[in-house]
Amino acid sequence: MNAFQKIFDWKTYIFTALVVISFSSFVAILFGQTIPGIIMTFFKVAGECVILGAVFLFALAWLLKAKPHNRPEEYLVVPFDIFGKKSEIDGIRTVFKTHDVAWSFMKQYKEMYPLYNFALVSDLPKSDKPIIFRYI
To answer: Domain containing 124: what range?
Structure first.
């Protein structure tokens, strides 16, 4: 009976059960909460950094690409006769400071002089020849 008591010692059994239960709970907490929490936090922060970096790269590319436009200082309305040759009409205004005003006058001239065509032309500072913006 003495040998039987040594094999089934209740103190050893209780200690082993406590160790197994505490170790299994440790493993469950480690692999169920701690490691996934660390990994999720890392990927959350890494994802935020990637998104923020993409936003900054887009903004930088946009700033480098968006150069100021060379706007002309004046616009000219040039009349053409029915043969396509430049002509002059007395009493019309031909030099304008803004595109919208020149376009408005050009439409009015087209109604007043239906046999003429009109071109909205301007000289850009870096251009060798005049540029036609609109033609009616």
So the answer is: 75-135
